[in-house]
Each structure stands twice: as C-alpha cells, then as structure tokens.
Write a structure and sequence with these properties.
With 96 residues, the protein is of the alpha+beta class. The chain has two helices and four strands. A four-stranded antiparallel beta sheet has the order 2-3-1-4.
Amino acid sequence: MEFLTAFVLTVPPGTPAAAVNDATAREAERAQELSRQGRLLRLWRLPGEGQTLSLWRVRDAAEMRSILESLPLYAWMAVQTTPLMPHPDDPANAGD
C-alpha cells in the first residue's frame, strides 16, 4: 500500500535547543534508514515552518502507524495519513 502523510511539526515552547538538534539528527538518520528499506519513497518540505509531505510504501495501515510512531520527532508532529489507491487513468500506467 502507498500512503501520503502530511506533518506539521510544533516544538513545545521552552524545549532546549540541544534536545531539538538531537531529535532532528535522529529523525534524519531514521528517514535515511526507511528510505534504504524502500518504505519512505519521497519527502517534500512545504512553505512555512515545519510542514512536510511524504510518500510511503508499506504492507498495511498498521505498519504505517508503527513507522510513524518510531520517528524521533513524532511526539511533536500532527500527522494526517491518507491511503492511496491506484487510479485507472494514472499516466504512470499508460504503457500497461
């Protein structure tokens, strides 16, 4: 299954910069790991502070939820997850 996620990151006021830097570095490492595993396919930053879109390929909704909860910044994220389904007119399938 593929999922599109939209994240808005909100760091709680008063969080020490060292904690933010550490969590951000661990998040980058985790994203690279998920990319190597073929789970995180694409990642985009949207205009504005802390807004991100990502495209995922996973077995099911339970795995998607587990992956999201494993992200170091998860506690500071508001996440909207949308399952994606193939469309019969998808140009990527034009040669099929």
